[in-house]
Structure formats: structure tokens, C-alpha cells
Amino acid sequence: MNVIIIGKGKMGTLLEQTALDHGMNVLGKADLFDPYALENFLDQVDVVLNFSHPDNLEWVLQTIANHPIALVEGTTGYNQSQKDMLYEFAKTHPVFFSANYSLGIAILSQLAKQVSQQLKEEWDIEIVETHHNQKVDAPSGTALALLEAIDPDHEFDHVFGRQGSTGKRQKEIGIHALRGGTIPGKHEIHFFGQDEELTLIHNAQSRQIFVNGAIHAAKFMYGKPNGLYDMNDLVSLN
Q1: Residue 208's Cα: distance from chain center in Å?
Q2: What is the greatest pairwise CA distance in the chain?
Q3: How many CA atoms lie within 13 A of 43 on its CB side?
Q4: What pLDDT is attached to residue 238?
């Protein structure tokens, strides 16, 4: 499998090394300011892995638009317009898109959905995410994905932090972001019932777990038909 990696930072370096360890042929790394590694191998590359900056999305899609190349997309912080671009692109290309490539988070999401279906009518739900002090977006894309898993029909108000005299809790889910130190990522889902609490927690120890998931996704996408795929296609409790 021939792959191109978008992004030359820490994540790009980890992706390159892990891909090589898994026997993949890394043709190069590219970004908006140095696009040639992608442009020069369009007839050879099978899968593009993009875990970089939102500014890279448009030129990547434009560059590979006329070639049968799969895209594994893991960049966080996309606005709705950029997400719509990806969804549209998936009509003509195989696209794997997830806010978090941890296999553990994928399982957590499915567990949270199942628990929510059982408890949401009588229990209160809160999401807390913690990341390092260099993370630029809040709440995390993973927290938002967990929120969607818990409340797919948007039955609840989504309250991002609380301040002032908020009054009695309504039909809502609270989402809270903590930032500090070097923590790669921690996500907690709290279900508060009468005299009891159930908490689901995933604690990332390093970026490597996301890299491992991305490599699994790249292998999964090899030869797939056009369409939009995510971690639920890769990991399932059913």
C-alpha cells in the first residue's frame, strides 16, 4: 500500500514511522506550503492520511479529486462548511472520517450510546474532557462525537460550561473542557442517578494510540468503494 501523509509535525512523524513498521510504502509527507510530495505521486498513492491543520483540507481535496485515492481524515477543529466538503467528497471517493482514532474511544462511544438509551429519561448526563495546554479547540472533537452518540436525536439542550445563576437543571447535557500540562486526552461521561453514579472513562497515554487506529483505518480503506466510513465501521460491539 502506497500512502502519503499530510502534516510534518509530531503526528505526521509518528504516522510515518508506524506506517513503515506495518510494511506500508510512505511516498512522502506534504502540507499546504510544501504540496509536491502529494502532487508528484498522484498516480501511485492508494491512501492519503491527513492529521494536520484545517487549512490543509481544501487543497488536499482539490488535488486528489480526479484520482481514485482513499482519504483517511483525522484533523480536528473543522467548521461545518469544511465537514460538508468532506461529506460531499465521500460521494466520489472512499473517506474515513473520525474525530478520534483510538480503538478504546470507539468502544466508549458505543457503550455510551447503549447506556444513554437505558438511563437518559431519569438520569443526568455530563461530559468532561481534559487535554494538554497546547490544544487550540474546545470542546474536543471527540467530546462532540460522544455527545452525538449519547443524544443522536438532539432531545437535550447542550450546555457548554456553566456560569452565574443557572437555576435548576433542565433537560440538558453539560460539556466541560479542562486544559493543562501535557495530558494527551481524557474523556469522562458521567451518568448521575438517584443515589448512584455511573462513569465511563477513557484515558489516552500517548498520541500513539491515535496513530495505531489511523493505520488500522488505512488498511481497512484499501480498495473500499466510495462512501463515508468511521470508527463504527472498524470496531463494533454488535
Answers
A1: 14
A2: 62
A3: 1
A4: 64
pLDDT for 54-110, tens place per residue? 999 999 999 999 999 999 999 988 999 999 999 999 999 999 999 889 999 999 999
Length of the chain in terms of residues written: 238
Q: Helices 208-221 and 10-21 meet at what angle, rounded to 10?
A: 60
Question: What is d(CA 93, CA 25) in angstroms, rounded to the nearest whole number?
Answer: 21
Q: Tell me, what's the pLDDT at 84?
A: 97
Mean residue pLDDT of the chain comes to 94
Torsional sign, CA 138, 143, 145, 150 = negative
- Residue whose grid cell is 436525536: 153
- Name the helix (H) or strand (E) containing 97: strand 94-97
Q: What share of the chain is helix, strand, coil (3-state, %, to 5)?
A: 35, 30, 40
Active-site positions read 131, 135
Task: Specify the pLDDT at position 132.
Answer: 95
Find out whether 195 and 173 touch, Cβ atoms under 8 Å: no
Looking from the CA of 220 toward its CB, the CA atoms found within 13 Å total: 21
Distance CA(236)–CA(238), nearest Å, equals 5
pTM for this predicted structure: 0.79
User: Closest by alpha carbon to 226, among 96, 92, 97?
Assistant: 92
Q: By three-state DSSP, how is residue 223 classified?
A: coil
Helix (H, G, I), strand (E, B) or coil at 116: helix
Banded model confidence at residue 125, pLDDT cuts 50, 70, 90: very high
